[in-house]
Specification:
The complex is a heterodimer of chains A (about 120) and B (about 120).
Chain A: E1 3-5, E2 10-14, E3 19-21, E4 24-26, E5 32-39, E6 46-52, E7 60-61, E8 64-69, E9 74-79, E10 88-96, E11 107-108, E12 112-117
Parallel strand pairs in A: 2-12
Antiparallel strand pairs in A: 1-4, 3-9, 5-6, 5-10, 7-8, 8-9, 10-11, 10-12
Chain B: E1 5-7, E2 10-13, E3 19-24, E4 31-37, E5 43-50, E6 53-56, E7 65-69, E8 75-79, E9 88-95, E10 106-107, E11 111-115
Parallel strand pairs in B: 2-11
Antiparallel strand pairs in B: 1-3, 3-8, 4-5, 4-9, 5-6, 7-8, 9-10, 9-11
């Protein structure tokens, strides 16, 4: 079974600064997807960024980028030029790329609460 | 509607009562997922529907939990004889059918269930 570990329960960053959230995972599969989701107080899970394991190039979405180290099974999220609206819980998640019925679910880490200060 | 809709938004009930939680997925999404988020925890997978069938129900924690989906659309998660440990936020997500390309899951706002 796959597991996802987020070792930072809370992080804090000053507005306009850069912060990196850590995530490691364990799998025996070679093909999979990794995600970062943001959960504001509204509870809705919002997809921030996605990485396909077969792609060596790190994904980037505006101020959000990842550092994907497949051999180390590490998938960190970097938020540049942090904004007050970035304050939320951030969850790292894994999904198998196989199409079997049991493979579609997301496996989540326990989350990192990000505070953004002035 | 434009997004995944869940109802009720909040539900408070007494221990031992049955509850039903509803999820209305995005139109056209054939895949539907239920997750549970306990306080301070990440999301825990419960069940996955493709159309009206459930190829993966491995996350249902006990036989008190059941779910169904009708017409390939609305899904209901039922918890019988609720216990205090059932208190959590129940999130529903939907997507197009899994295929060669990843189909992102779109989440609703969840139902916060509190068992007294």
């Amino acid at each position: 079974a796959q597991t996802v570990t987020q070792s930072q329960p809370e992080m804090s960053v000053q507005e306009a600064e850069t912060v990196t959230l850590s995530c490691t995972y364990d799998t025996s599969e070679s093909d999979y997807y990794l995600f970062w989701y943001k959960q504001p107080p509204s509870r809705q899970m919002i997809l921030v960024i996605r990485q396909e394991a077969y792609k060596q190039q790190n994904a980037t979405e505006n101020r959000f980028s990842v550092n994907f180290q497949k051999a180390a099974k590490s998938f960190s999220l970097k938020i540049s030029d942090s904004q007050l609206g970035d304050a939320a819980m951030y969850f790292c998640a894994y999904r198998s790329a196989f199409l079997a019925g049991t493979a579609s679910k997301l496996t989540f880490g326990t989350g990192t609460r990000l505070q953004v200060t002035l | 509607g434009a997004g995944v809709s869940q109802s009720p938004s909040n539900k408070v009930t007494e221990k031992g009562k049955d509850v039903e939680l509803r999820c209305d997925p995005i139109s056209g999404h054939t895949a539907l997922y239920w997750y549970r988020q306990s306080l301070g925890q990440g999301l825990e997978f419960l069940i996955y529907f493709q159309g009206n069938s459930a190829p993966d129900k491995s996350g249902l924690p006990s036989d008190r939990f059941s779910a169904e989906r009708t017409g390939g659309s609305v899904s209901t998660l039922t918890i019988q004889r609720t216990q205090q440990e059932d208190s959590a936020v129940y999130l529903c997500a939907s997507s197009f059918a899994p295929g060669p390309l990843d189909q992102p899951q779109h989440f609703g706002d969840g139902t916060r269930l509190s068992i007294l």
